[in-house]
Write a structure and sequence with these properties.
single chain; about 110 residues; alpha+beta; Archaeosine Trna-guanine Transglycosylase, Chain: A, domain 4; 2 helices; 5 strands
Length: about 110
Amino acid sequence: MRIIGFSQKWDKLTRNTFTTFRFPRKDKDWFEGERVKVVLQPRSKHRETLGEALIISKIPTRIPDITLDEAQADGFQDASLMTAWLIKAYGHAKITSSTIMNKLTLKWC
């Protein structure tokens, strides 16, 4: 079972169904129906397993096309704050107007 990691305990993780945006993986991309282990700080000695979830949908989304509702569901006040967080986390080179990320919707098992 693969791990899907989070750097902080977002409020969305307390909901039964939640979304997250992830880069497509080159080795084996995420897929609908995949069961994953949700982990907080996966590369830290303070790692915490939060549980297992099922990916119920995967939608490729360009960053400029992220809506206000999607950004708010992901834990941000608006899409521009989400984009700013992505740039801070991944850098300007990875986050451009043509960058495509997978919008994953997960449901706790």
